[in-house]
Amino acid sequence: MDTVHERRAGEPPLIDSSSDHREWLKALEPFIPPGPPATPAVLPVLHKPGKLQLLLITASDLPKEVHSKEQESFLILEGECICRVGDTDHYLKPGSYFEVPLNAGHTVHVRSERLVAIMQRLDV
Questions:
Q1: Largest Cα span, the chain
Q2: Cα 32 off chain centre by
């Protein structure tokens, strides 16, 4: 699978609570179209065994998911959303990093014109 970073040369770092969303936004700016997308856009950033990073651009909510073998996390680059885990809402804005607990049902509700985020899944 051809990824954004293969086109830009070099492997991207894994996201975590110290990740700078502005650096990610600057690096991925050429791949982010203006305005809200008519349908969700998902571009691979990193795709290696046990590691997946996707650039997510959406104006639509994401359906409920549960992960038991992958640690999913988000770094918000643009826009706002609420990640609901069980009965708890987590408000996310640009610069927010959120790690979804394993085996926890979660949804993402977009609260802005569009949401641009890095979604990362790591095998556990």
A1: 41
A2: 13
Q: Report domain extents, the chain.
A: 4-10+22-123
Does the predicted model carry a pTM greater than 0.90?
Answer: yes
Query: DSSP assignment of 32-60, as one string?
Result: --SS--SS-EEEEEEEETTEEEEEEEESS
d(CA 86, CA 97): 18
Q: What is the pLDDT along the chain (124 residues), one digit of tens a residue?
A: 455 544 455 789 999 999 999 999 999 999 999 999 999 999 999 999 999 999 999 999 999 999 999 999 999 999 999 999 999 999 999 999 999 999 999 999 999 999 999 999 999 9
Phi, psi values for residue 21, rounded to 5°: -60, -30
- At the fourth CATH level, the homologous superfamily of domain 4-10+22-123 is Jelly Rolls (2.60.120.10)
Question: What CA–CA distances, in Å, run from 59 to 1, 36, 56, 64?
Answer: 25, 6, 10, 16
